[in-house]
Write a structure and sequence with these properties.
22 helices; 2-enoyl-CoA Hydratase, Chain A, domain 1
Length: 542
């Protein structure tokens, strides 16, 4: 046995390992390399430098590292690829300059839940491609998929997209492709993806925005475009950033789900959205404790729907009265106005809510309304959220606008999503359910947890709309057509009673409106027996 090994054995037996003489340690430590590591870490953390950071702050926007710190739990961020960037070296190999890559990512926790967090660094070349390393973006997406963690994107700039200046740097051009797009597509079926637009967002950055389950822009700070104002101006259209793609534009056309007033509000909505979802499609949403009694009754609901079918009424107070207190999280408030959609809890169980909105065209479904329904159904089905549908649907919008918007195509897509969904579904028919759009109240190919308020009114079309056409010949021969029409209406009013439908088991239950919460809490609890974790084979369509 070599002398140093005999000494080591003796010291181990004597418990005196700490007394090994210095001559038996490594002949040279790694202090120089560790010092170089610290120097490079400091250079990376400088981002674009003091001047660019000051400019970012003056614009009222946080920098990428400050954003990560504001979103994740204290001390939980573990950066991946911190030292990546673009270095310059002297002839002797000494590092003389370093520009960090403008895409940061790593592991972290949000409210104790592991996540993957990414942030574009606008202080380095405005987030352009010639300061990006595309494999970082791809690896961030892969990390989320492989380890089943929600993916949080904080986007500013082109998000790793193209830059004309990069062509000179490369010395050649290329046939376009998007590194990592396949990973983004896969993640829509695997893990919750949230995208926050926190500054001007263009090109691939805009693509990354909409490839998410939940996205938003910050009013006044964020804009989104296929191409920004300078490129658009070259094509002859001069617009400011706000005129071209302000948050108010995209929150109303549905390109993003919401707009908020501040970055802090954006971070809060991110956390709330995640709280309703599992970490991946391989898990079920968690139930939270609630002090809100499942049998709580709101007596005012009994008069919430007016007797006059032409009168409108607000739907949001009804939603808030039924779900657990303070649990309502609306998504897409400014677009597809014929329905209100969002997430909520019933007796602590997470559910997806779709509710007709009579205050917008009486609840008629437009093309945008149908797209909004489809999006919410896809989200619910991907992450195993039972659906609660509050129905007052007089049908599809009709007329030239409806035809120009291809309403029947988008309406049929929404119906397809409803029938493809595998999650439990409860419908509460508050008032109208007419025609093809009315049939979207629930999938008809399975057991239906369906109930109606006494105000329920349904059919292939409203009686008032088809009455004179259906009885034209009879009315033409009547001695007093007006009186005869009134008599026909009276007869049909008796037939249209929801109790007549219930007698024939055409609707499974009629309930007092104040009992709705108790019924839906029972549904949410029973629905857990039918939920199965696992990928559904398709994710949310952007």
């Amino acid at each position: 046995m070599a002398p140093h090994r005999r000494l080591l054995k003796t010291l181990l037996q004597a418990g005196g390992l700490h007394d090994i003489p210095a001559r038996y340690a490594a002949p040279m430590g790694w202090e120089a390399e560790i010092e170089e590591l610290r120097r490079r870490q400091a250079l990376a953390r400088r981002m674009g430098g003091p001047e660019k950071l000051a400019r970012q702050k003056a614009a009222g926007r946080l920098d990428a590292r400050a954003r990560i710190a504001a979103v994740v739990d204290d001390g939980s961020f573990r950066e991946i690829g911190e030292l990546s960037g673009f270095a310059g070296y002297a002839e002797d190999g000494e590092l003389v300059s370093f520009l960090p890559a403008n895409f940061l990512f790593g592991r972290a926790e949000v409210d104790g839940r592991p996540v993957v967090v990414t942030a574009d660094d606008f202080t380095v070349r405005g987030g352009a491609a010639d300061a990006a390393l595309h494999r970082k973006l791809l690896e961030a997406e892969r990390l989320a998929t492989t380890y089943r963690m929600p993916l949080l994107r904080m986007i500013e700039g082109t998000g790793g997209g193209g830059s004309v200046k990069s062509l000179e740097t490369m010395g050649h051009t290329y046939v376009p492709e998007i590194p990592g797009w396949e990973a983004m597509v896969a993640n829509l079926a695997e893990v919750p993806v949230v995208a926050l637009g926190l500054g001007p967002v263009a090109g691939l950055g805009a693509g990354r925005m909409v490839m998410a389950h939940y996205s938003l822009l910050v009013e006044g700070l964020s804009q989104m475009f296929v191409a920004g104002p300078p490129v658009v101006a070259a094509a002859g259209e001069v617009r400011t950033k706000e005129e071209l793609g302000g948050a108010h534009i995209h929150a109303k056309n549905g390109a993003v789900d919401d707009r908020v007033a501040t970055e802090a509000e954006a971070f809060d909505r991110l956390r709330r959205f995640l709280s309703y979802l599992p970490s991946s499609a391989d898990e079920l949403p968690a139930r939270l404790k609630t002090r809100d009694r499942a049998d709580r009754k709101e007596a005012w609901l009994n008069a919430a729907v007016p007797r006059d079918s032409r009168r409108l009424y607000p739907i949001r107070p009804i939603v808030e009265a039924i779900v657990d207190k303070s649990s309502w999280f609306e998504i897409g408030r400014e677009w597809g106005l014929g329905v209100v959609t969002g997430l909520a809890r019933l007796d602590g169980y997470a559910v997806a809510i779709i509710a007709s909105n009579p205050e917008a065209l009486g609840g008629l479904w437009t093309a945008a309304t149908a797209r909004k329904v489809e999006r919410m159904v896809d989200l619910a089905d991907t992450f195993h959220l039972p659906v609660v549908h509050l129905v007052d649907n007089p049908g599809f919008l009709i007329g030239r606008r409806a035809e120009d918007e291809a309403t029947i195509r988008w309406g049929s897509r929404a119906l397809t999503a409803i029938y493809q969904a595998s999650v439990p579904w409860a419908s509460v028919i508050l008032r109208k359910a007419y025609g093809m759009a009315g049939s979207a109240h629930a999938p008809a190919d399975r057991f239906r947890w369906r109930m109606a308020w006494p105000s329920g009114d349904w059919g292939s079309l409203p009686i008032s709309g088809g009455l004179e056409a259906a009885y034209r010949s009879e009315l033409e021969t009547a001695g007093d057509p007006v009186a005869h029409l009134a008599d026909i209406k009276a007869r049909l009013e008796r037939v249209r009673s929801p109790f007549r439908t219930a007698e024939r088991f055409g609707v499974e239950a009629i309930i007092a409106p104040e009992e709705t919460r108790a019924e839906l809490c029972a549904f949410a609890a029973t629905a857990q027996r039918a939920l199965r974790p696992g990928r559904k084979g398709r994710g949310l369509r952007p």
